[in-house]
């Protein structure tokens, strides 16, 4: 689950001019929708969202959003960027039931002496239990590599990626001398 909660501002106007004004104020227009729920129009802090986007795989990631005093568990469905400037233009978030089982992309974090071969893995389980990232340490090596099956997850979660796939190796192991 996300380690921070993003504040969403509601009551924004619709339309391209209104969205441009929001971006000028440092906000990103957002649409929040969910099964059996009314679609919500909001705006998120561009700097906070930009930090998340630059540090990890975001589409498919779990994000906590506070909207009108309610904390919502969401999954990022789409992010739109300016084609040249790469500024964030819009984000679509799907509201989840925290107990609902989902499959999402989770970023891997390399420990000392570890070289990642993939940046993320797919994890399945209740949305409230999905971690923001998964550490991959040197204690997970088997014959110089780390298999997806070596990842330790909280109870109730499982790796949806092929368990026999190699996700990391010892740092420097593939360099030619």
Description:
- The protein has 177 residues and is mainly beta.
- The protein has helices at 16-24, 46-55; strands at 5-10, 27-33, 40-45, 62-67, 70-81, 88-96, 101-110, 114-116, 120-126, 133-136, 145-147, 158-159, 166-170.
- The protein folds into two domains: 5-96, Ribosomal Protein L25, Chain P, CATH 2.40.240; 101-170, Beta Complex (RNA Polymerase Alpha Subunit, Chain A, domain 2), CATH 2.170.120.20.
- 11% of the residues lie in helices and 45% in strands.
Q: What would you say about this model in short?
A:
This protein is mainly β and 177 residues long.
Q: Give a short account of the largest sheet.
A: 6 strands, mixed, barrel
Span of the ends, CA to CA:
42 Å
Taken in chain order, the helices and strands follow as: EHEEHEEEEEEEEEE
The radius of gyration computed from the alpha-carbon positions, rounded to a whole number of angstroms, is: 19 Å
Shape: elongated
| CATH level 1 class label of the largest domain | Mainly Beta
Q: What's the number of extended β-strand segments? A: 13
Detail the poorly predicted runs.
Answer: none
CATH topology of the largest domain: Ribosomal Protein L25, Chain P
- DSSP summary: helix tally: 2
Helix content: 10-25%
SSE class:
mainly beta
Kindly report the average pLDDT value: 81
Strand residues, percent: over 45%
CATH superfamily of the largest domain: Ribosomal Protein L25, Chain P
The overall number of domains is: 2
How are strands sequenced across the largest beta sheet?
1-3-2-6-5-4
Provide the CATH architecture of the largest domain. Beta Barrel
């Amino acid at each position: 689950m996300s380690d921070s909660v993003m504040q969403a501002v509601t009551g924004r106007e619709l339309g391209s001019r209104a969205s441009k004004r929001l971006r000028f104020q440092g906000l990103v227009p957002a649409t929040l929708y969910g099964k059996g729920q009314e679609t919500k129009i909001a705006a998120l802090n561009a700097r906070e969202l930009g930090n998340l986007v630059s540090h990890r795989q975001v589409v498919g990631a779990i994000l906590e959003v506070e909207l009108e005093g309610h904390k919502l568990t969401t999954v990022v469905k789409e992010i739109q960027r300016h084609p040249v400037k790469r500024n964030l233009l819009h984000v679509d978030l799907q509201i989840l039931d925290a107990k609902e089982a989902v499959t999402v992309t989770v970023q891997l974090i390399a420990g000392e002496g570890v070289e990642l071969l993939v940046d993320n893995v797919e994890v399945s389980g209740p949305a409230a239990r999905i971690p923001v990232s998964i550490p991959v340490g040197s204690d997970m090596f088997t014959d110089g590599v780390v298999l997806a099956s070596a990842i330790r997850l909280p109870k109730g979660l499982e790796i949806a990626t092929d368990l026999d796939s190699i996700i990391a190796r010892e740092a420097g192991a593939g360099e030619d001398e």
